[in-house]
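User: For my dataset I need records formatted as: sequence, then structure tokens, nothing else. Please produce one.
Assistant:
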Amino acid sequence: MSEGVPLLAFINQRFAPARRFGFALETGFVPINDTEYLLTAHHLPLVVRIVAGTPILAALLRTGDLARPAIDAEGAWRLGYLPIALRTYPFVLAEREAARPIDEIDVLPHHGQIGAQGAVICVDFASGQLGPEMTAIRNTLHMTRAGGKRLSAALDLLRIAGVLVPLVGGNGESRSDWTVDPVAFAALGEAASAGLARQSFLPLDLAGALLFSRRHLQPDRLPRPAPRTLGEAAKPAPPPSDPADFMLASLEAMDFALDGSDLFDLGDVVLGAEFAPPEPAPEPASAAAPAKELAA
């Protein structure tokens, strides 16, 4: 993006949120914060860009990159989620020391957001105190700067792990936008995966979000798979496993036998002696007497 002008130059003016976002197509991407990348992945393709040697997380916006346009011909936003960087445009944090809140912010070239209408920019000229809406934007800009540092550290780990691969340009060339290679990511060993998650799960979460968001890319922008050598056959994918397979696979080899006896006395052990079935009653004496007479 272009260098901005200090917000102090607009101290007597007002601002309104952007309603048209055609300006975003000039750069073709928008930075994404660590509080919104999971939600953004449902609407836009996430990529890794290297800016001044530092990886940043961004979402692509150009129509030629997207399976579904994010911005229509009139500049209106078409998707369900609007990234933070577009909601705070044209304001950015300045790269300088600032004694007052108004001195912390620069203004990028804008398209009618600043003028005589809208929210007040500054409420106290002497102290540089910002208006409520402008204060909220300032707080959000500080949040995104801190989030960007966390994202860069996590993306550096993905780059070191060797799971990033460039997208393909319109002429078949490799681009400066990187995504996660699903084959390389699946081939990570236990040690490498544990190293990525050593301090936090953010690197693994980012890898999942980058992979998930690839569905929003035009098919011809996806990285090409590595070519196979002549005669190399693709290995068939293993069938999906069932948790019961482990037990059933060697069931016939188990050395055991079943019989029809009870393992325990149900009445004594489970029900208790008081619930056990009664013993057979003794035969009555009158029934036994005729038997003795016949015997005599």
